Amino acid sequence: MTPREAVDSTGGLLHSADRKATIVLLAAPVLGILFVYVGSKPFYLRHLASSVALGGNVELTAGLYAFASAFVLLGLIPALIVRVVFHEPLSAYGVRAGDLSYGWKALAVVAPVMVLLSLSASRMPEFLAVYPLNRAAGDGPLAFAGHALAYLVFYAGWEFGFRGFVQCGLRDEMGDWNAILVQTAVSAALHVGKPLGETLGAVLGGVVWGVIAFRSRSLLVPLLTHWVLGVSLDLFIVCR
Fold this sequence. Notes:
By secondary structure, the protein is an all-alpha fold. The chain has helices at residues 3-9, 16-37, 41-47, 58-85, 100-121, 125-128, 141-174, 176-189, 196-216, 220-238.
C-alpha cells in the first residue's frame, strides 16, 4: 500500500473529529495564556495605563480592559474558529436557549448558592485584595450598574470559551465526561494566582457548569450563575 493509499483508506490524516479536537486542544491553552499575560489587569497597569485611560480613570479602564480581553480572546476568536474553520453553527456550542424547563430549575438552585458563596468570600482578605477587578465599581450605584453589565461581557467570553468551544468541541472525540474534565482543567488553571478557595472552587464549578451546559443544551444557565457569583461578590465588597 502506498502512502497515498494509506491516507485515503482512513479518509485523511485526521478524521474531522480528530482534527477538531486537535485545534481545540491547541487553541485553548494558547488563548488562555494570552489572556493571562496580555489580557489581564496587571498587563494594562504595567504597559498601557500611562497612555490609555478612559476619562482619566485608570481603575475603570483596567477593569474594562480585562473584560474586553476575555470576550475577544476566550469568546470571539473561538467563535470565529467554530464558524470559519469548523463550519458549524454556534448553536451547536451552546449559544441557544436550550431546555428552558430544566434551565430555570437549575438557575433557581444554583444562583442562591453562588450568592451565599460570594457573601462568605467577601469577608476574606485575600478576596478583598483582588476584587472588584474594576475598583471604580464602588463609586456609586450607576458606576456599579455599568460594572455589572460590563462583567456580563467578560462571562460571555469565558463561558463560550470553556463550556462552549472546549467542552462541545471535544465531545465527539472524548465523550461527555472527559470533555467536561478537560475544560475544567483548563479553566481552573487560569485561576492559578487567585485566592486558593477560588482556584479550588473553579474545579467544582467547572464540573457543575459543564454538566448543566450539556444537560440544558445551552450556556445560558452557566453564564447567568457565573455572573451572579462575580457580581454579588463585588456588590458585597463595595457595600462593606
